[in-house]
What we know:
With 71 residues, chain A is mainly β. Chain A is 0% helix and 54% strand. Chain A has one domain (3-57): CATH 2.40.50.100.
Amino acid sequence: MGKPVNAPMAGKILEIFVKVGDRVKKNDVIVMMETMKMNVRMFAPEDGIVNTVNVSPMENVKVNTTLITLA
Amino acid sequence: MTSDTVMTILNGILAGFEALTWQYAAMIIIGCVLLWLGVKHDFEPLLLVPIGFGCILANLPLANMMGDEGLLRQFYNAGIINEVFPCLIFLGIGAMTDFTPLLANPRVLLLGGAGQFGIFLTLLLALACGFERLEAVCVGVIGACDGPTSIYVTSQFAPQLLGPISVAAYSYMSLVPLIQPPLMRLCTTKKERTMVMAYTDQKPISQTVRIIFPVAVTIITVLIAPMGAPLMGTLMLGNFLRECGCVDRLNKAAQNEICNIVTLLLGLSVGATMNGEIFLTTKTLIIFVLGAIAISGDTIAGIYLAKLMNLFSKEKINPLIGSAGISAFPMAARVSHRVGQEENEDNYLIMHAMGVNTGGQIGSVLAASIMLAVLAAMGYIH
C-alpha cells in the first residue's frame, strides 16, 4: 500500500510531477494544486519510490484525498 | 510666406512647450514611473497603468483635460465626486470574494479587525504632523490597505489629497509582499512560524449559510455604522450575486465587465487629480511615510493578536496568518502562506490566511464606516 501523501486542503490538481516508479527525495515537489486562485506546491514528506498516482490533472480534490502513495 | 507667418505658426506649435512648467514636467515623469512600475514590475498594473496615463494626460499643458469641459473632469464628476466608482469596484470585489474560509473558522474575523490598527495609529500620527482633522482621517484610511475605501473617504472629505492618498494606498498594496515578510519574521519565533494548521476539523459550509452571510453582514454592519452603507452594501450585494446561484449573468458582469470598465475610469480619474502644485509638496512625502507606518502597524497588530488568541485557545493559530488581516486581497494571504512554507514545507496556511484576509475586507470597510459615524456624531461631518 505504501505511505499516502494526502491533499492538505481542497483544490484542483494542476500538474503532477512524478509517475509510478519514480524515486523522490524528501521535499521534492510532487504535485501543483490550485487553491483560492493560488498555485500551491505539494512536497514529498520523505524519501521513497512512487507506488501509485491516484489523481489526474484538472481533478478537483477534497481535503485528505490521497494524491500519491510512496513505497 | 512672410517671416511673421512662420513665427506665428512656430509659436502655435511650440506653445505647449513654452507652457511646460517644472511641476508639469515632474508630474509627467511621475506618471511615466507609475506606468513603468505597472508594466515592467507588475505592481498593481490594473490600477497603476490608468493612474499613470491619467497623470500624464492631466499634466500636459494647454490640453485642459481637467478643465471644466475636459474629458477627465467629466469622468471625475461622473464617478469620483459622487463616490459611484469606488462602490462599483466593491460590487466586483464582493462578487470575486469567497468567504468560505472565514465562515469555516469565524474566530479569525478578529484578526481582520486587528489588521485595521494602522488606521487609528496613522490618524493620530497625521494629527501630530499637523494635518487638519478630516485630512488626517483620510490619511489614516491608507491603513485599511484598501484603495476603493481610501478613494471613497478622501473624495468626500479631502478631495485635494485624492491623488497622493490613492497612489500611496495602491502603491503600498502592491508592496505588501516586500513590506510584510521582514516584519513577520521579526515578530515571530521559528517555532511559531513552523506551526502546522490542519484543515481536517473544519466543517463544510452549506450554500444556505453562504447566501445568508452577505445579507446578515449588511444588516448588522449598516445598523452599527449607517454611513458605510454604500461600501458595505455593494460589497455584500456582489457577494450575494455570487452565492445565490440564480443570477449568473449579473455575477459575471459584476466580476468582469463592470469591474473592468470602472477600474479603467477610476484609475484615469485618480491619475487626473495628480496636479503638480498639490502633489509636489512635503505633505505628499509625509503621506507616503505615514502609509508605510500604517501597513507596518496593521501587520504587527495582526500577528500579536494571533499570539494573544493562542494564550486563551486550545486550537492554536500560526501567528503568520495574523498579518493577512489587511484588506490587500489576496496578496496578504499569499504572503502568509509563502513565509510559512519557507519555514516548513508541510505548512499550508493559504486557506486559513484567506479567511483572515476576507475578514480584513469586511474589517476595513467597517473601520472606515465607524470612523465616519464617530465624526458625524461629533459634528465634524454631515
